[in-house]
Amino acid sequence: MxxxxxxxxxxxxxxxxxxxxxxxxxxxxxxxxxxxxSAGNERMREISGAVQEGAKAYLNRQVVTISVIAVIxxxxxxxxxxxxxxxxxxxxxxxxLSAGFIGMRVAVIANxxxxxxxxxxxxxxxxxAFNGGAVTGLLVVGLALLAVSIFYTLADKIxxxxxxxxxxxxxALGASLISVFARLGGGIYTKAADVGADLVGKIxxxxxxDDPRNPATIADNVGDNVGDCAGMAADVFETYAxxxxxxxxxxALTLGGNSAAIVYPFVxxxxxxxxxxxxxxxVNVANGKPAAVLMGGVLTSAIVSAILFWPATHYLFPTGLxxxxxxxxxxxxxxxxxxxxxxxxxxxxxxNYYTSMRYAPVQKIARASETGHATNIIAGLAVGxxxxxxxVGFIGIAILxxxxxxxxxxxxxxxxxxxxxxxxxxxxxxxGPITDNAGGIAVMSNLPKEVRAVTDQLDAVGNTMKAxxxxxxIASAGLAALVxxxxxxxxxxxxxxxxxxxxxxxxxxxxxxxLFLGGLLPFIFTAFSMDAVGKAAxxxxxxxxxxxxxxxxxxxxxDTPEYGTCVDIVTKAALRxxxxxxxxxxxxxxxxxxxxxxGPVVLGGLLVGTIxxxxxxxxxxxxxxxxWDNAKKFIEEGNLGGKGSFAxxxxxxxxxxxxxxKDTAGPAINPMIKVANIVAILIIPIFF
Amino acid sequence: MxxxxxxxxxxxxxxxxxxxxxxxxxxxxxxxxxxxxSAGNERMREISGAVQEGAKAYLNRQVVTISVIAVIxxxxxxxxxxxxxxxxxxxxxxxxLSAGFIGMRVAVIANxxxxxxxxxxxxxxxxxAFNGGAVTGLLVVGLALLAVSIFYTLADKIxxxxxxxxxxxxxALGASLISVFARLGGGIYTKAADVGADLVGKIxxxxxxDDPRNPATIADNVGDNVGDCAGMAADVFETYAxxxxxxxxxxALTLGGNSAAIVYPFVxxxxxxxxxxxxxxxVNVANGKPAAVLMGGVLTSAIVSAILFWPATHYLFPTGLxxxxxxxxxxxxxxxxxxxxxxxxxxxxxxNYYTSMRYAPVQKIARASETGHATNIIAGLAVGxxxxxxxVGFIGIAILxxxxxxxxxxxxxxxxxxxxxxxxxxxxxxxGPITDNAGGIAVMSNLPKEVRAVTDQLDAVGNTMKAxxxxxxIASAGLAALVxxxxxxxxxxxxxxxxxxxxxxxxxxxxxxxLFLGGLLPFIFTAFSMDAVGKAAxxxxxxxxxxxxxxxxxxxxxDTPEYGTCVDIVTKAALRxxxxxxxxxxxxxxxxxxxxxxGPVVLGGLLVGTIxxxxxxxxxxxxxxxxWDNAKKFIEEGNLGGKGSFAxxxxxxxxxxxxxxKDTAGPAINPMIKVANIVAILIIPIFF
Lengths: 688, 688
Prior knowledge:
The structure is a homodimer. Chain A is mainly α. Chain A has helices at residues 2-36, 42-80, 83-118, 122-159, 161-205, 217-254, 259-285, 290-316, 330-355, 360-369, 373-386, 389-420, 422-444, 449-495, 509-550, 553-556, 563-577, 579-594, 600-636, 646-687, and strands spanning 321-323, 326-328.
């Protein structure tokens, strides 16, 4: 036992690297299988090529824009902080960008092949779309695990243990900041194009979704790739890396840098790569309804992880671990890690309930559409808010239990184990945009209606999956941010002895003011994001109207629309509009630090305030948006009058309002909260 | 100097009673002037009579429903707490109900006379509507000040000082609880009728607002009276009484019951009654644009109060007051009280900016309507969220400054001085529904279009005023609730020595869990409220459709609609649907107290969490709703295509979504937050 323990202690990080590599290799094998499948006829390949080109062009320009800001921050870190932190920032930023590119590249390969598979069978299309998602999932998780472990190992050797740990915060900032930009830029792009296309196309002209006569339709499909795929991949990379780093920080700051405690999160991550691979294999052999097959994959992955966590925990902590003066048994630590897995299942199940068309909430919105646009909106807003209750309740339980088992470290472990599921969870998330695009390609290539029916069916499942993974991402982000806040407090105490005994008490007015200021951040962050979508969508609407007026032949199919101008307009608008909201968390935190009567106490309250309201706003937005989307799909399936009915028109309005909710503003809160917390940790030695 | 001081110390409470009585007498004089004005022709009196009857019938049934719950709580208090508290509860509940009745009665007298005045001139109509509001304002404030001072004086004599102070909490609970019910019941009523009438009337049938062919039109006008007038009056009574009681509690709990500190809030209240009277007189003699005249009234009132606060503070605290171990000068205390007046002006100005059609935010929503329903909604949601930033920022500054001047007592004094402005502020708030109703009567009595044009112009001002006063109410509620939270902590420490040194630290997981649970409360409270409106509105829509189908002659004017059935449907729905959300704050607080692993620490976090998210949700809803309403009015004035255009249709959708936001869910958060805090204080000796 002791031998194994010693072994895992020293080999834990290398072993987790090995697992990451196995995951990457498996992903490469999977992508080869995907690529070998047929990409359909020439028309399909042509459309897919146009989408791919638009997506690449956008991402390249996004990289240029973000790089300017990244270079400025790199210089600031290089000058005012230390060099390893600045280098960590670059590594995090680079990997986060790469994750986005991977997500986009894989998706554009998989979508046209999913269309082709849909011409043969539902199950084949399901597997094709899922495997495309799984490639992204495994590549992103493998990359995150590998990046953090290599950086940590090298930094540890070169600049020593202490600085290595601190420089990880730089890596976290790089990952988070890029992720905010990717989420916002991609989210504004995808939803401006989508909303713009819908407003003129569906509502004014009565086009179907993805009608090739709609000048904004290519931009809409490009958006799915740059927002839902690239943005999401960057986001999950960030969430994974930050959760891992958060756990390491807590181990370093509160457990005196206990080696086993630092190695443990790496080991959890490594094990779950194996779990994710088995989950992917399950989906590729199982039969059944799409949603059930996908959930089976998640369950397989969770069970494998839960089983393997047990020996790993006991090998690593043969005699337990002393936390806050009390010895915690290996079993207690194991329980903390299992909480993360259970939380994943719970959040997935809850969000599924609120956003799947099989349950009451979505059907309530659909019925409210019968009385008009306004009642649809009111019902959707209410569903989104209702959907916050259970996740927040369970987050409370998770905090209580994991803290009970192993203090702040227990929470960090729960978060890491929750995030260790990311490999399989992203597979689900990417599934949505891939099937969405597949459907678009089917319509634009004039494939038979049955093909679109297959992709529509998968798309509805995909909508729920997207909402589910966003619920998962934001719940884990809330917990991860709490861990970061804990690190902020510890770091502040360690840095400035004046705060050694300080408690951030609710009876302290500065804490309350901080809670208010922090609580404000998600509200105006999302307000700016929605404004951005509204503005960019308005530009698309005007352009589409202009084209339809200038070339009346477009409507009859005699003229071809200029897809390129719409792509160009959205690209520029997205890049311009993402800057202000993305910088808000940095501005708030630095302002709280710099403005005289505020300072570290207000900043502490601010961090918690952002987590509290951020969690609610994000869940309400992502769940509400998903529910609106599926309420529309529910009616389109022929319920309550079906397509073209009054109820359907109202449901389209709800879906359109839900677009920026669920794909721009809501999911961007996740990295935004963490940027705020990470920046706060970084600036402690500079200002306090 | 010392002689005056001694005098004011002993005569302060009786003097404030005298001021309250002067206010009441002035209100009675004013109502006589209003009544003497012409109530128009027979048709107008008939319609006004129908509205009045519906409103009375509703309020009577609401009293019955609420009484059942009030009796249960009275019995619980009588058995588990002390008798004075139970009696205080009855007094608070009774006065809050009475305030609601007063608000409704005065409004139905004033509205028809405003219609009549509108046939002569804009200024006369303005004054008539304002004076109707002023009667409510002065009666409510006078009643609140009188009720608290008489109850306190009597209880002090009969059961002694300590118990008298504690039993005031019972009075606060009675006031707040009734207020939640009145706000919710009235809010559901008014908006279900309004939304229902609009959905079928305006959108399906193309009726004008208040078209007598619309079977829901009387219910809609009844709603304005039971929701906006009765609900609001109960709400402001509650806010006033609770702010006064909060200040007394802080003086008793943290200043050892210093007499001058207890008398001070009474004196501030008394002085402001005089200020309000002068403000009302100003509006009755000034000339100019409606908004400017009304703002002049507020300013007059604030300046008079600010001037009179100075000598009063110095007489009462000739040598200052020792707070938290430091002597505060009379000037410092005076500054704390002036902060409340300044905050009133600031919040009024900010909300005016976000909701008046003269500024960018409303016009942005109007322009977004040109691209459809969805962009209107997105823009409105964004404006609501943006509107939270400045108020919250200024609330932060107010907390910082007033705490700096006089600790928690300083915050309490700032709140009380803010609330002392209520007399003039309600005059503005009531102004809105009175003009709204006046317009309805004009249309239904077939008066010339010019009359409706006058009332429409006043109605737009009224919309802004309503949003403004809601911003004021919620900002003051946030501050008042913080004072109550402070009292909760002090009471807990005094009651249970185990908590004597306890700090509600953000690093304590239970505090975080409390923040999450409390943060949840406003989200699901408003979700339930909106559901309630949606359900009740759906019932109205079905009934209106049924009538129009059964009697096609209604459309041509040959048949008269059955107004009564709509009134009946909304009445029943409102009373049924208000119960669950109204009880939520009690359920949350008691659950946190009773469920084992939670307890007093989680409860403390819960109280603050509710305040934090409640403030944002309430401001976003009330400002967003007001902005949507005026964006519609902006288009109806002939901008962007005017009435009947595509933009107008989209703006009607936004207005309809805004209805439950601004008149049901949003304003009900105000008393809800306080119910949570008061219940928490009350149950300390029972559970902890």
